[in-house]
Write a structure and sequence with these properties.
It is built from seven helices and no strands. By secondary structure, the chain is mainly alpha-helical. The longest helix has 23 residues.
């Protein structure tokens, strides 16, 4: 696959990416567990078919100590007993928050389940994380950014 556009060859991309990375930094510094943040980014990227983000977040998660079993089972989290109830609630919220175009929105039951496991600050971080990874996915998918060359911590 060849990229349609080199975003960093434009004047605008560095400014946009800087703003998105700045928002992500706030999330990284939040009390939402890092493992949950990475699992959500991976699941949303799977749904959106973003190879670039999947490459980045699976490698970063593995470098941070995430197990290959859990990484390999994110797409089948409902059938895999390796995720906590809190992680399951976050993954379900991420799925419904990503699939808004399907018309169902985010169910009250899904929100209530997430609220059982996360306080308001963590819920806000979770919602923002879902929104942010969707934005990154769309930039990368639309411009066909190729995956596979990311090195863990490359943009830290």
């Amino acid at each position: 696959m060849q990229a349609r556009l080199n975003p960093f060859g434009t004047d605008l991309a560095p400014k946009i990416v800087k703003a998105l990375v700045s928002a992500n930094k706030m999330l990284v510094d939040s009390t939402l567990p890092t493992a949950t943040q990475e699992l959500v980014k991976i699941r949303v990227s799977q749904i959106n078919g973003c190879g670039w983000c999947l490459d980045m977040h699976t490698k970063d998660a593995a470098a941070a100590g995430e197990t290959s079993v859990r990484l390999n089972l994110v797409g089948a989290w409902r059938e895999a007993p390796v995720f906590t109830d809190a992680e399951r609630a976050a993954l379900e919220l991420a799925e419904q928050g990503t699939r808004l175009a399907d018309g169902a929105g985010v169910g009250d039951d899904v929100w209530a389940n997430a609220a059982k496991h996360y306080d308001e600050e963590q819920l806000m971080a979770l919602v923002a994380s879902i929104a942010l990874i969707n934005a990154f996915n769309r930039i990368n998918v639309i411009t066909r950014q190729p995956a596979g060359d990311y090195r863990p911590g490359q943009y830290a």
